[in-house]
């Protein structure tokens, strides 16, 4: 269990944070001032310190200096008000992992803490063991540091992916990661960052797919207080937050053309200016972008700037889909099962043979993300120590049960006499023909809507209950 120390002189804030993090499986200790916090640190080892910037006996800057001097392996996150953001950014450059602004939001806190602890553990694994000789280690002796979300695979595609990470990480190249949704593009970006000379600096991830045109400039470049209606405080943009480190832009193809133009200027000049400010800030940021679409096609259609594409495309990495990774499917499934056991306090040890066959035959349109969710769900539903077919979602068990090979050879024509069983089979039975047609129609619609039964019922113009009954009648469900 990960240990967290909360330092805040507001007792209620510390208590609420402690209860929330305890519910999320963290071992939490609280301190109401800096001296008390340092005493706790002297008596126990903590993965992370969550420290308010303003304390009754000191401030976040001095606390960061004290912690990094005496306990350099301990991560620090600063809790700050909007008026302290500029100082918080300075603290990140001094070694703090990140900052969280008040008011505090549970999802933001949990996400930031999880990423901070992952980064800390990855960096600890990177520390070289003292060599017995003075011989310079060869390139092959260097241990590669990977994001905790990255699972080493044995498939050829997985080994090639690892080779490319190792190749590009030590450089300062911008990287485009191309792959379907759910293939683990962010975990690759993190692994590149952790193996780069920038590994001790911030890794800032930004989801471009969720940005509106109006918000994008503020998110990228930041703004000054009062620079526009609703700008109630100074905001630090993602470029400035990532200064010295790595900025990861996910689903970059979704950015509007206007924002692409502003982005190009920033990338070319390596300077950023907040909205409403006249001061330019020098940037030293490595950019890694990810996309699930073909940007060359987007360029041809006038949706993506060719000059920006070439700025990003100094090195390209293709993310293989899960269905292309063969035996890695079960390697990943076992990994996610162990994670689910730890999360749920269960002891599910394996998958039934028909589940393994099902996993290997399913096409996994949601890729690694879908596999992880399926395994977590199965672990929750499994009563014994082995995952059975009944614990799998309907869309997976049906898809694999009724999926025909894409290029199946026609069955050879048999000239033998029919067996008694086949002789009895009614070939021109209208009732059976109607059932077959109904089965084909229902299955076709289910596949079209990715087994969303509400949408399927709407298309078929029946209610959900009728759809369930029909699926049961034609053996489409368990």
From TrEMBL:
Pfam entry (one): Response_reg
S-adenosyl-L-methionine in keyword set: no
Top-rank lineage group of the source organism: Bacteria
SMART domains registered for this protein in UniProt: AAA, REC
Keywords attached to this entry: Activator, ATP-binding, DNA-binding, Nucleotide-binding, Phosphoprotein, Transcription, Transcription regulation
InterPro entries found in the cross-reference section: AAA+_ATPase, AAA_lid_NorR, CheY-like_superfamily, Homeodomain-like_sf, HTH_Fis, P-loop_NTPase, Sig_transdc_resp-reg_receiver, Sigma_54_int
Modified residues (4-aspartylphosphate): 52
Matching CDD domains: AAA, REC
Sequence ranges assigned to domain Sigma-54 factor interaction in this UniProt record: 151-380
Domain Response regulatory: 3-117
BP-aspect Gene Ontology terms: phosphorelay signal transduction system; regulation of DNA-templated transcription
A GO molecular-function annotation: ATP binding
PANTHER family in alphabetical order: PROPIONATE CATABOLISM OPERON REGULATORY PROTEIN, TRANSCRIPTIONAL REGULATORY PROTEIN
Name used for this protein in its record: Sigma-54-dependent Fis family transcriptional regulator
Organism (species): Mucilaginibacter mali
């Amino acid at each position: 269990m990960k240990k967290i120390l909360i330092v805040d002189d507001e007792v209620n804030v510390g208590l609420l944070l402690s209860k929330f993090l305890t519910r999320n499986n963290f071992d939490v200790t609280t301190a109401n001032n800096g001296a008390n916090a340092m005493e706790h640190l002297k008596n126990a080892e903590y993965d992370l310190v969550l420290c308010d910037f303003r304390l009754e006996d000191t401030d976040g800057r001095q606390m960061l200096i004290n912690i990094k001097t005496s306990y350099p392996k301990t991560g620090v996150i600063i809790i700050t008000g909007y008026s302290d953001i500029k100082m918080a950014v300075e603290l990140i450059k001094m070694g703090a992992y990140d900052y969280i602004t008040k008011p505090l939001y549970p999802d933001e806190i949990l996400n930031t803490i999880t990423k901070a602890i992952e980064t800390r553990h990855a960096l600890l694994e990177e520390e070289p063991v003292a060599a017995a000789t003075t011989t310079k280690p060869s390139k092959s002796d260097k241990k590669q540091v990977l994001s905790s979300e990255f699972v080493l695979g044995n498939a050829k595609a997985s080994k090639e992916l690892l080779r490319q990470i190792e190749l590009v990480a030590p450089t300062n190249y911008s990287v485009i990661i191309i792959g379907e949704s759910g293939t683990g593009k962010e975990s690759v970006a993190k692994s590149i960052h952790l193996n780069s000379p920038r590994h001790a600096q911030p890794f800032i991830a930004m989801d471009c797919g969720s940005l509106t045109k109006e918000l994008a400039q503020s998110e990228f470049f930041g703004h000054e207080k009062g620079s526009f209606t609703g700008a109630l405080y100074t905001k630090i943009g993602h470029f400035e937050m990532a200064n010295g480190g790595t900025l990861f832009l996910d689903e970059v193809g979704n950015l509007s053309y206007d924002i692409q133009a502003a982005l190009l200027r920033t990338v070319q000049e390596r300077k950023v200016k907040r909205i409403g400010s006249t001061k330019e800030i020098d940037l030293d940021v490595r950019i890694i972008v990810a996309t699930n679409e073909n940007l060359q096609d987007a360029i041809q259609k006038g949706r993506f700037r060719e000059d920006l594409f070439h700025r990003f495309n100094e090195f390209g990495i293709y993310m293989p889909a899960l269905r292309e990774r063969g035996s890695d499917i079960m390697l990943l499934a076992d990994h996610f099962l162990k994670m689910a056991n730890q999360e749920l306090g269960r002891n599910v040890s394996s998958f039934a043979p028909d589940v393994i066959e099902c996993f290997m035959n399913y096409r996994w349109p949601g890729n690694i993300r879908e596999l992880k969710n399926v395994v977590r769900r199965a672990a929750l539903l499994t009563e014994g120590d082995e995952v059975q077919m009944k614990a799998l979602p309907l869309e997976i068990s049906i898809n694999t049960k009724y999926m025909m090979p894409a290029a199946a050879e026609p069955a050879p024509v048999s000239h033998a006499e029919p067996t008694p069983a086949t002789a009895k089979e009614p070939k021109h039975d209208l009732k059976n023909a109607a059932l077959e047609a109904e089965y084909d129609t229902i299955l076709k619609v289910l596949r079209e809507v990715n087994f969303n039964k509400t949408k399927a019922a709407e298309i078929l113009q029946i209610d959900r209950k009728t759809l369930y009954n029909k699926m049961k009648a034609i053996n489409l469900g368990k």
